[in-house]
Amino acid sequence: MNLFGLNSKPKRDLRIKINMPKGWKQLSTEQLEDVSRILVDMAKHYNLTGEYSQGRLFAEVFFRLNGLVPKGAPGHDDREGEDMNGMENLDPETVALMHTYYECEFRDEEKRRQMQEVDGEIVPVRIYVWEIAELTKLLQTELDGKGNPVPQKGGLNWLLQPSEVETFPYPALTLSPHYPETEEKVGKSDRKKRKAKDKKTEEKTFDGPSMYMQNFTWRQYRIACDYISYLQKYENTLARMQRDSGKYGVTRLMQVQEQVKKIRSSFMACLFNADVTHVDDETGQTVTSPYFITQQVHDNAPYFYDFPEEKFQAVLLWWQGMMHYLSKQYPKVFKKEKVAGEADDPLKLYTRSTTTMIKYAAANEEEVNRTTYTIILQHINDMAEENERYEQMKKKK
To answer: How far apart are CA 236 and CA 231, in angstroms?
Structure first.
């Protein structure tokens, strides 16, 4: 395949080497943010219009991960006999799309000069839609026995699968606080006091979760799960209200948007630990180091109030990847079952699991909360397996 020929004949033959990530785990933090930004924009568009295009998703991610920027609207030619790599039997509409192309240039200025400059001019790179479709494995040309398209492996199809990101994208952050009061609610004198306070307030450095959250206690893990549950509830409510904004009005929408921001900032404040003076569990000595305390969820929330949306989405992709990892390690804990009625609220789940663990591990509530969360998950998984074996034995009798 004559991949990515230029739209004029340069004195030297130029080719672009494509090195697309093959899965979530191969994304750098910058690439994860790029993908997150695209996912956020497409989610907003879908929420407002109900329109979704997998082709658009794949194309935008393709361009971004390869550092390319389309220049202007797509063009079209009438080439005949082009080698379409087995796609010549497609319907006329798709064939017409295959003759559509984008003229692009590299986002990075140095790379643009190196790869595209010919006789002192930047020559656009012409990329055809059929080339993007083939490289990203967008088209599903194979059919199963029932005549349904068979998803191809490779390309960008990993975007359609749950995230498998396991390395936290922001191991350390230094941030300044921001308070959620709006300008309308704060008078001039109050704003001056706030600015003076902000100047006196020192930046704070935070440590993110370690690999597989091994620095998390059961308490920290449980609170983070609670906030994710609350966030999903309020974001679903907000999405529903935005689709019918005329019914709810601007004031109500702003209130829910504000609540979503507060829940997000509290969730982030739960994940990141700052230096705290505490007694080391192992040595018994008083030390100052990053350490989780329940109060930080409230005290540190202002530092994450204006956390960039694409970075927050990157954190959510990491959380999804962690849940995917934990579901494989502790399948009985994360087993999905059909349960009649509404799901238990976090307080009921906490009370039940903590009470069970106290009986199982002969510990009190505080000891359970201070225990590394994976140990508790392992205990719960073991209990579930024992219960299943017991039920199987009862059926055999």
So the answer is: 8
Helix (H) or strand (E) holding 160: none
Instruction: Return d(Cα 302, Cα 261) in angstroms, integer.
Output: 10
Q: Strand 75-76 and strand 100-106: pairing? A: antiparallel
The model's pTM is: 0.82
d(CA 128, CA 191): 54
* Tokens 């609610």 belong to residue: 185
For the beta sheet containing 172-175, the strands, ordered from the edge strand earlier in sequence to the opposite edge, are 172-175, 204-207, 273-279, 286-290
Question: What 8-state DSSP symbol labels residue 352?
Answer: H
Q: DSSP labels for 184-235? A: TTS-HHHHHHHHHHHHHSPPEEEE---GGGTT-BHHHHHHHHHHHHHHHHHH
Q: Is the dihedral of CA 217, 384, 334, 338 positive or negative?
A: negative
Q: Give the span between the Cα atoms of 348 and 355, in whole angstroms.
A: 11
pLDDT tens, 70-126? 998 888 886 544 555 555 556 666 667 778 899 999 999 998 888 888 888 888 888
Tokens representing 112 are: 């643009």
Task: Give residue 237's region: left, alpha or beta (phi > 0; psi -120 to 50).
Answer: alpha
Helices of type H across the chain: 29-49, 54-65, 92-98, 109-116, 129-136, 188-200, 218-243, 245-271, 296-299, 309-329, 346-361, 365-370, 373-396
Tokens of 5: 């020929």
